[in-house]
Amino acid sequence: MLQRPKPSDSEADLLKEQERFLVSGAPLAAKYGYVYNKNTIKLRYECMRLFSEDLPDDMPSLTPAPSKKSCSKENRVRFEDQDTEEVLDKHDTHISAVLSRIVERDTSSSLVSLPTFSGTAFPRVLHQTNRLCLCFRLFHVYSFTYSLLSPSISLALFMSRSPPPPPALREASGPRLPSGPRLLSGEGLGGPDRSAETLRIHQENQAMLQTMSRGEILEEQRKLLAQLVLGPLMVSLGAMLRASILTPEALPPSSEEDLPLKPEKQWVHMGKLEPDKLEWTRDLPGPRRKGTQKAMQARFDFAGSLISPHEDLPTHLGLHHHGEEPELAGYSLQELFLLSRSQVIQQRSLSLNTLASILTKARAGQFASALSGSVMTTLLDAGLLFLLRFALDDNVEGVMAAAAHAIRALLVSDQDEVRQRFRSVFFSPLGSQSSLSSSSLLSVPSLSRWFQGLLRTGLLSRLRYILEVVRPSPRVVQDLLAVLTRISRHSSHAATQVLDCPRLMDVVMSEFLPTSWSAPSLHPPPSVYGLPLAGALKLLRVLATSGRHACARLLSSLGVRERLSRLLSPEPGELLLESGQALRVSAEAFRLWAVAASYGQACDTYIELYSVLLRALQAVTRDLDSSGPLLAPQRQRVQALLALLTQVTHSAGCHQELHAAMLRSAGRGDAAERRGGVGVCVVRLLRSSLPPHCPVRPLLHDSSSLLPFPRSCSAVCDLQGHGPGPEAVPSLPGLASAGWKDGPGLAVPSSPFPLLTALCVLLDSITGIHKGLSSKFSGLLVSEPVIGYLGSCCRATPNLSNASAWVLRHEHHLLYLLVRLAHRVAPKDPAVARHASLYHQVAMALLPWLLPGSEHLAHDLLCSVVFSKDFLPESHSGGPEALELAELKLHAGAPHLQAVGPLLREACVQLPSLRGCYLGHLAHLEPSVLGSKDAYLGRTPWVRSRLLPELGPGPALPADWPYLPLVTLYERTGGGELQVEELPRGALQAVTHCLQWLLLLEVWREGALKAVTPVAKLARLSCVFLSASDLFLERPVQRLLWALLRLLTRPDRLDSLDLDVAPPGLASFQDLFSALLVQYEAVSFGDPLFGCWLLLPLQRRYSAAMKLAVFGEHVGALRSLGVTLEQLSLPLERYTSPPEASLPLLQLYFRSLVTGGLLQARCPLLYTVALAHLNAFLFSEGPAQQVSPVAQRVRVKGLIDHLLLFRGPQQDSALGFHTYQQLPPDRAQRLERALGTPDSSHGGTH
Which of 14, 93, 703, 1032 has the fewest CB atoms within 10 Å distance of its CB? Predict the structure, then answer.
């Protein structure tokens, strides 16, 4: 195969390739000739065409050279009769040869004009007064382009290389075609008649142009412009030429009075006036009127504040620019994005700093009332995160610093950090999993995809480079440490990536946590390198909360243990730092040590620094006894110290259990012995530091004054309507601190919840050690603020979100402690026993609220309070007997309806068995319960991580957990083909216990199931019919189902039953109803309970699709659906009113009646329903002809009488409806018109 020549081929290769081509005899690829197209302007192009048959077979010789068709063939090189020296001199282009040919021009007769003298520094430059001169100089280069862009002028007028006449001359003389060609030269044509051929082509072009219309010329110009490869410079220049020549208003003004700026002679470079560039000097239009309702684009100043469109700001502020709206001050988000990628360094830095300020104010919620959308969402959707990431790679330190500040403003919320510190301070003594994991609440890996994207862009390596090589200013260092802290809070995987980043942690430890340093000479220091920083310690603390292995890695490999000793051994005033910075460093060191102690680590450090802790705790007592209040850094250090002592105490309390575990595993007990020594030190430390008089008793007696308004601060009740705020972004989860800043809340300094929670923890510990002291603390449980608060919680429905979960956890823990304390006090104190029902309602409401990580609380409530007879006072105070009397009064004469009283009495006897049933079905949560128990009870050696688990689909227990045994049995059995004997062992007993518990809740604890919708209850109970073929026929199951059906069909419950809403876990209720129909036809045996269950969705208010399924696809079920009117607990009017409007369903009604599929003896209820709807349809306002086919096709005995004389449903009647004695006159007339004969056969008595 022949190949094209390559640049690397030598001359020998080219000759070989040419010889191979000639030998092959392949046809040539190119030919030349004239191309003529009738549809375009006939401008002929000269193309070369080669013919293979004209070439000789042999290669021609080089002497003489073959003739070439060239426009300059006479000047080509010749090998014969030519002087070589002359040829070389002629083609020599060296500078010496060029200069030697220069001939001086004769200027003897020319006039010499000297420049005139002036007072300026430089002579005046000659300027053309008309812009057309400049255009004409360049016109010979871009004449063809201009002809394409000027459709108002004929193409032939611009084919000359000389400039065309001015527009005024053209308008005066009119369009006139030139006599000769001005663009075509004919240099490519050969032969002696080249000029004649060129003139002939030109004449043809002129003739074609004259025959074409203006629209055709413009279309051809557009096609030529699209075909030509024109650069943007040529197009823009053509547009400039067109605007300069064709638009007279674009010409400069004739006098200086028309200019917006009056130039003066002493101004430099003002000799040539450019009006387009001086337009910005004109006066700006006035701002928009205040009465306008038109929305405007948001504009911000350099501080990130929103500028009102009605505000008229002075121009010296630098907020006016050459944008689309120059009269408005400020920069829009789009303009800031544009400036952030500018080539000017100052513009990039200014835009990034402005974006950082906007993000900070947006997170604080300052734009919520002024802007219609979310600033955070808009910026993230526009690609802000990637813009900042690109800016962080800038090689200019100022831009780099601005990008770091903007990333910190985007990822880190200062208000959230304050809330984190407050929560870790006031709730740290709780011993809960979230007490020290102040970083874990922002861990939502399924939502915060931005962090994953950032980590994949190599952000950690870039931050390490900036910290290690660039060594930026102190503010940038603080920003970068805050960003690293926020990334570490995302998840344990992100924390591991921070730890594994090469040299990152080494730089942090060596530069910002040194073991030795000197006091800075200036405050604040110009550089923080070589000084300990609280932000670096905070980063280590957050990394330690990700897991015990990460904490051990920090302590052993990175030298954190030595840093703790170095920072905590001296007093804060001896750290050679500024006082505030020293206190913050000391407080963060205590917090980091507390996290390590929460894993049972750093015990040796506690023994080594025992004297330091003793001295610090004694200093705390002295400071508290002083009259002056503590400063904020001092208070934070004291609180961190107490958190450390709490965790150390938990670790010391586990030494016996750990020692026994190590002995069982044949290991050494050195660690347990060390913890035993720590326990002795803790006891001595607390004994020496506690005051002689404990203020617990006075605190309890004055509890009412300490808790004035707990409901207003509650996150469960949420009376203030706190929400995540308009700037909350699901992909960047936070604590929604902006929603809690303007009102009372749980996480504010004035909240009573921290003190109440700490008090409940103390009382729980005291009552657990000495049960005889339980009755001493009943005053707290029966106080009016606590009772009112618990009542509000029972009626509340908390809104769960990633932003509210962090405060709900603490309030859930407080509610749990109150219920647990009441469980211990109620059997011994009658005052608390009177409120046992309220505390049981709180426990039942709390169970479906508990979040993942609180499984231990749920397990403890199920084991203690939920199934306790002491907290069901109705069971032993005449509750079942009262219900029996009510049943006898209301339903005397209805023996099929099961009395609820005996069923409740039996359920109360079976409460321990009910508890065992539910605990057995929740056994799959055992690993989570054990992990949660270790965290809540302070079993530090077994705590794996301080990060809270993901919120996931919702709370730890579903809202419909009482139905769990039914759903579990349905999932295990499948299609319901098994019999009771074939079910798993204990299935019948589990179903019975589940139905007993549901009956008890429906009667006495109705609010406990308020989160479960009525349609969900009906769907869950339907599992009894679908789990086995005869499970619903068992007597205890059927009795309980009858009672629950009566409760579900009460008038107040029935109105809220909406079957159009899909039950949780199902696509639609109609799918469940279809499965019930199939099961009923197969195994029901005409059971009235199952029949009532099927009749419930057939009410008139529900969709006709389920009735169509019964009368169409499953018409066989009508033969056994023998539910009587007495057995039905619903009013008959719910099935017959309003009249049916579905014609297909009416046809099915009629067909089932005519064919005998629906008989009164077999299905009296639906027989009455079908009669009512057909009667209403027959005697409606429609045409009378619809009665005739009905009357003619009815052949069933008595059906025509029922159909025509039907008057209305009557539930106490033997037929279920009552009829007319004779046909009413209006119906008789209508029937007579339809049949055409008088009707007298329907006058009997029915």
Answer: 93
Nearest alpha carbon to residue 529 among 514, 539, 540:
514
What does DSSP assign to residue 1082?
Answer: H
User: CA nearest 1074: which of 1024, 1108, 1124?
Assistant: 1108
- How far apart, in whole angstroms, are the C-alpha atoms of residue 613 and residue 729? 43
Q: Which residue has the tokens 């006031």?
A: 426
State how far the Cα of 781 lies from the Cα of 819, in Å rounded to an integer.
Answer: 9
Handedness of CA 742, 744, 750, 755 (dihedral sign): negative
Q: How many CB atoms lie within 10 A of CB 1179?
A: 18
576 torsion bin: left (phi>0), alpha (psi -120 to 50), beta (else)? left
Q: Are 932 and 850 in contact (CB under 8 A)?
A: no
Nearest to 1130 by CA among 1086, 1080, 1165, 1085: 1165
Please say whether the beta carbons of 944 and 548 come within 8 A: yes
- One DSSP character per residue, 198-258 reads HHHHHHHHHHHHHHS-HHHHHHHHHHHHHHS---HHHHHHHHHHHHHHH-GGGSPPSSGGG
Pairwise CA distance, residues 983 & 343, whole Å: 77
**Secondary structure of residue 189 in the 3-state scheme:** coil
How many Cβ atoms are within 10 Å of 683's Cβ, its own excluded? 12
Angle at 434 between CA 429 and CA 439, to 5 degrees: 120
Residues 504-531 have a mean pLDDT of 93
DSSP single-letter state for residue 26? P
Query: Exposed e or buried b for every residue in 625-644, given b needs 16+ CB within 10 A?
Result: eeeeeeeebbebbbbbbbbb
Which two three-digit tokens encode residue 177?
Answer: 């075609």
What pLDDT, on the 0 to 100 scale, is given for residue 1202?
79
Average pLDDT of every residue of the chain: 77
- On whether the CB atoms of residues 651 and 678 are closer than 8 A, the answer is yes
Residue 1207's H or E segment, with its range, is strand 1206-1209
Work out the angle at residue 747's Cα, subtended by the Cα atoms of residues 744 and 748, and round it to the nearest 5 degrees.
55
Q: How far apart are the first and last CA of the chain?
A: 106
Residue 661 pairs in a beta bridge with: none
Q: Would residue 773 be called left, alpha or beta, if left means φ above 0 and alpha means ψ between -120 and 50 degrees?
A: alpha
C-alpha torsion angle, residues 524, 525, 527, 530 (rounded to 10): -120
**Cα separation of 777 and 780, whole Å?**
6
Q: How far is CA 964 from CA 260, 711, 971, 1233, in A?
A: 82, 33, 11, 62
Percent with pLDDT over 90 in the chain: 32
d(CA 1007, CA 500): 51
- The pTM assigned to this predicted structure is 0.73
pLDDT tens digits, residue range 1097-1115?
A: 999 999 999 999 999 989 9
- Report the half-sphere exposure of 203 (CA within 13 A, side-chain side): 6
**Buried b or exposed e, range 721-744, using 16+ CB within 10 angstroms:** ebbbbbbbbeebbbbbbbbbbeeb
DSSP, residue by residue, 92-130: ---HHHHHHT------TTS---PPPP-SSSSPPPP--S-
Query: For residue 70, is pLDDT > 80?
Result: no
Categorize the per-residue pLDDT at 673 as very low, low, confident or very high, splitting at 50, 70 and 90: very low
| Residue 193, pLDDT score | 67
Contact residues for 85 (Cβ-Cβ < 8 A; gap 6+): none
Amino acid at 1211: Q
For residue 460, name the pLDDT band (cuts at 50, 70, 90). very high
pLDDT band at 1002 (very low <50, low <70, confident <90, very high): very high
Q: What is the 3-state secondary structure (H, E, C) of 553-573?
A: HHHHCCCHHHHHHHHHCCCHH
